[in-house]
Amino acid sequence: SQVCFIFSDFGKMQTVCNLLTEKLGASVTVGAPHFYHTPEAVDALRRQVCVAAVGNTRRKAQEVCRLFGQSLGKPLLIREEETKEWGGPRDAHPSDTSDSLTLQERIQNATVYASCRVSAVFEIKGKENKRNKLL
């Protein structure tokens, strides 16, 4: 008989496969894993990358403000300009069949990458504003 398992954690998958092989010996054959991402996981990745891009933009704007003796205020506009996602290694060969790939190559092929470009407009506060608030 054949049994299929779906794991969301690679470490747990390895532990279970090792346990089955150890306990059942030669009577069990563990096939090569098939990796995929659910639409929810890819969507969560997109959101995470966008939030990180906004955080990076804010930190850069704070550094620029410090350079000019200003302070960064609240965001006035944040716009997601572009989101890209791609998978697998950049040097993958179309002739590679899944049977001939190592486990590491399978993981690399199944890995999803994402990038996000954002633009943001922030309020800039002068040093006078801080002094006035203290008075």
From TrEMBL:
It is found in: Cytoplasm; Nucleus. It comes from the Eukaryota. Keywords: Cytoplasm, Nucleus. GO terms for cellular component: cytoplasm; nucleus. Gene3D superfamilies: Protein of unknown function (DUF541), domain 1. GO terms for biological process: immune response; positive regulation of canonical NF-kappaB signal transduction. Belongs to the IRAK1BP1 family. This is IKBP1 protein. The lineage of its organism: Eukaryota, Metazoa, Chordata, Craniata, Vertebrata.
